[in-house]
Specification:
The protein is an alpha/beta fold. It contains ten helices and 13 strands. Helices cover about 35% and strands about 20% of the residues. The chain binds adenosine-5'-triphosphate. The site of adenosine-5'-triphosphate has 11 residues, from β2 and α1. It is found in: Cell membrane.
Length: about 325
């Protein structure tokens, strides 16, 4: 995919996105709400043509060569449209009738752990069970390429882990997987590479390690009794910031910073209760993006309102 742009009327939802996914890879698209993940996926799946840019799947144009591409792909949509009166088995059977060489109904229900629900009507399934049925239908045609749009939304932790195992098995069998998710742990667990989308563009891409490299470690502690935040030492050149009543350091290397903090505390006779240390996480990166967007929004609003309103400041 090279320079993908996609607009809805006046609004440009995807603004020049480029990436390549290797065969057999699990690639996760992450991003804030409305970042353009589903739109990007829908172009890859051949539902929309790009407004600009080039997209190739198996070397084919997924919009122009839709039928050829779809035969080799599986799509798990965010909301599958089912007949509520049909049972799980009847639903799978009816989908199978359109696919040559489809997996057997029992096999596919076994894969997603829905054997016991085969005779249950769709209307009586829980949200997580419906997601599993969506997944069963997406893998019916033994796809080489599988698109999963927020596959574990609504699942309890156990069902989520079962789904992760299934996705890992499919990947081990050679399936290429493109995933969007809001669960950062899901991307951390499953993805070979991630791309983080923000406002229609890619803000960062690489392995989770690469995306987080250089973000440093985080040390947080309640400001010790009898101290002010201004009295806390600088660690590895970093001063603490106050967040939710805690002093928070972001340091290049956690271990030496921690040693220096302990030396300082011993010298002052201060107890370091409630100290927490952790590596940079995708969650921190997201919070930073959301923070940045918030600030940009506020600046944009101020900039736009001044000439229009003409109010004295
Ligand atoms: N059919 C449409 N018509 C007009 N605008 C749309 C349409 N579909 C999506 N958009 C807008 O395009 C932007 C990107 O939407 P998209 O669904 O691709 O984001 P997303 O990253 O998948 O978001 P989420 O995480 O909330 O599902 C949003 O601002 C959305 O409101």
């Amino acid at each position: 995919m090279d320079g993908l742009r996609r607009s809805y009327g006046e609004y440009e939802a995807v603004r020049g996105v480029s990436f390549t996914i290797a065969r057999g890879e699990l690639f996760a698209l992450l991003g804030t709400n409305g970042a353009g993940k589903t739109t990007t996926l829908e172009v890859l799946e051949g539902y929309h043509p790009p407004t600009a840019g080039t997209v190739r799947v198996f070397g084919l144009d997924p919009y122009a060569d839709g039928a050829k591409v779809r035969r080799r792909t599986g799509v798990m949509l965010q909301e599958g449209g089912f007949f509520k009166e049909l049972t799980v088995r009847e639903t799978v059977d009816s989908w199978r009738s359109f696919i040559s060489g489809a997996r057997a109904t029992a096999e596919v229900l076994g894969l997603v752990g829905l054997e016991a629900k085969a005779s249950t009507r769709i209307g009586q399934l829980s949200g997580g069970e419906r997601r599993r049925l969506d997944l069963a239908l997406a893998v019916l045609n033994r796809p080489e390429l599988l698109f999963l749009d927020e596959p574990t939304t609504g699942m309890d932790p156990e069902a989520r882990r079962t789904t992760w195992r299934l996705v890992q098995e499919l990947k081990a069998a050679g399936t290429t997987v493109v995933l969007t998710t809001h669960y950062l742990e899901e991307a951390q667990q499953l993805a070979d590479r991630v791309a983080i989308m923000d406002r229609g563009a890619i803000a960062a891409t690489g392995t989770v390690g690469e995306v987080l490299a250089g973000r440093g470690d985080r040390i947080a502690l309640p400001v010790p009794r009898g101290c002010t935040i201004g009295e806390l030492p600088s660690l590895e050149g970093a001063l603490p910031a106050l967040a939710d009543g805690r002093a928070v350091y972001t340091v290049p290397r956690g271990a030496p910073a921690l040693a220096a903090l302990h030396t300082w505390a011993a010298g002052r006779g201060v107890e370091l209760d409630g100290l927490e240390v952790r590596g940079g996480s995708l969650e921190d990166l997201f919070l930073d993006l959301a923070d940045r967007n918030d600030r940009t929004d506020r600046t944009d609003r101020t900039d736009r309102s001044r000439p229009k309103a003409g109010l004295p400041r």
